[in-house]
Amino acid sequence: MKFKIFMPIQATVGASVPTLALAQSASPTFLHENRLAIAIMVALYLAPSIIAFYRKHPSKGSIIAVNILLGWSIAGWIWAFIWSLGTTRHNVVVINPSPVAATPQNASAVLPVASKTIAERISELKAMLDSGTINQSEFEALKADAMKAIS
Fold it and tell me: Does this model's pTM top 0.70?
């Protein structure tokens, strides 16, 4: 009895489906026909990630995550794209560990004198005096500091 009830339904469904759809198609599939367009769309979708990767962006992992997870929304994709075009430089602040400021008066405390002989250091100081970089009192103070290395 059940077989007879479902038989007309199966016949109507089978009749409504075209026989060409059930048969093997000789024409290329949608993916095959449009593979270039699909590749271009995927590349455009992943453009922020690609840019961040090739620019060696310090936040490339975060940019890739935002691009993949939120890129489907226009705002997420724009956010990742602008972020990937941002600066790739790190600002490095070097703090002088010595409390003594580097001025001509205490340059001997900052510059290593041991790498040069005393005569070389004094001749450098004389050249600085002659060029006007330091004045006579600074020259005398720096020369006295250089001479202290002897004793």
Answer: no
